[in-house]
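Hi all, long-time lurker, first post. I run a small reading group and we've been trying to get comfortable going from sequence to structure in the token notation. Rather than ask abstract questions, I figured I'd post a concrete chain and ask someone more experienced to write out its structure so we can walk through it together at our next meeting. Sequence below, copied exactly:
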Amino acid sequence: QVQLQESGPGLVKSSQTLSLTCTVSGGAITTEYYAWSWIRQSPGKGLEWMGAILYDGRTMYIPSLKSRTSISRDTSKNQFSLQLRSVTPDDTAVYYCARDPGGGATMDYWGQGTQVTVSS
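-- Answer (accepted) --
Happy to help. Here is the structure in token form:
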């Protein structure tokens, strides 16, 4: 059973960098051909896929956030991380990490989500 757990600060000040880590158990993040995604949901809005890191370390981002977002990994800890720079209150959301099995399928495992509030 694959499990994902987000961790990081729940409160970030405007203009600072939001940093979150997803710890994965029950499966290696290097296993072909999975992608490991960050997704967020702002108040009153739908889910927004932010980006992902693939099993081989390649990254992909949604164009609207690409200039502010970095996703990296630590394979020795089986973790992957999100950094979102220059945050504003509009970045307040519940942030989720999830596994994407690829091939057009939906995410099959999700973390429970972590609330991040950006103060002005």
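A couple of things your group might point at:
The first strand starts at residue 3 and ends at 7.
Residues 79 and 100 are 15 Å apart (CA to CA).
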